[in-house]
Amino acid sequence: MEPLTALGIATASFVGSHFLLSSHPLRGKLVELVGTGGFMGSYSLVSLATFGWMLWAWRDSPMELLWAAPAWTRWITAVGTAVAFFFLVVGVSTPNPTGMMQSGQLEKGADAVRGITRITRHPALWGFALWGLAHLASNGDVRSAWVMGGVVVLAIGGMVHIDRRRRRAHPEGWATFAKHTSLVPFAAILRGDQKLSLSEIGVMRPLAAIGVFTGMALIHRWTIGVSPWP
User: pLDDT tens-digit profile of 189-207?
Assistant: First the structure.
């Protein structure tokens, strides 16, 4: 099998397994069969296995260019990745009804909207999406397009999927939460349904994001083989 074909299959498996296992009919049957804990454990194992397969296939794939990215696009990648880590780190550290095993937060109604969820109800997934988009800007090769594109599809598709699942399971709580939030960053603020509160985000979360971004940048050459700096 051609390496790039193998990478395409691995990426499709990584993305597709997430949507398949979390689909309403299959998820319900699996939870009934093995329980919530068993399902979450199996889901995590499949995610790690397919992610590892995708990375392995990426490393084995040749560098074939789709387009020659100009040198200045490296600035897009650097700045975009920094913003992505902000959304990711602040997002995962903020209670959120859209987060894994946190749907009970919907009982709080509008009070469940705090910190970065005032900007978007899917901050962590936007972090992954921005990471993928930022890297696509400066990487015009086929293997990067497969991996980064797969991450973007999974992140954005995951937002829509989670919204549908929460709406189905918690119609009243979701209606209130959705009214005071937005999928697109800053949309709820711009339409007047929300106000930005930097104090709720705090100082430690952004500092943690800076720390994670710096750490990843320092090991980037060692792990990926190229410098992340413009």
Answer: 999 999 999 999 999 999 9
Rounded CA separation 16/214 (Å): 31
Look up the domain containing 16 and give its range. Answer: 1-62
- Examine the domain organization and report whether 40 and 84 are in the same domain: no
Provide the phi-psi class of 147: left if phi over 0, else alpha when psi is between -120 and 50, else beta. alpha
Domain boundary among 62, 79, 111: 62
State which amino acid sits at residue 67: W
pLDDT digits 0-9 by tens, 123-181: 999 999 999 999 999 999 999 999 999 999 999 999 999 999 999 989 999 999 999 99
Classify residue 133 by burial, with Cβ atoms within 10 Å: 0-12, 13-18, 19+: buried
Residue 229 lies in a domain: no
In a domain, 230, yes or no: no
Q: Which of 29, 26, 40, 32 is nearest to 161 (CA)?
A: 26
Candidates 203, 73, 48; CA nearest to 133 is 73
Total number of domains in the chain = 2
DSSP structural state of residue 141: B
Residues 192 and 97 in one domain: yes
Same domain, 75 and 90: yes
CA distance 203 to 199: 8
- How far is C-alpha 7 from the chain's CA centre? 20
Task: Tell whether 58 and 125 lie within a shared domain.
Answer: no
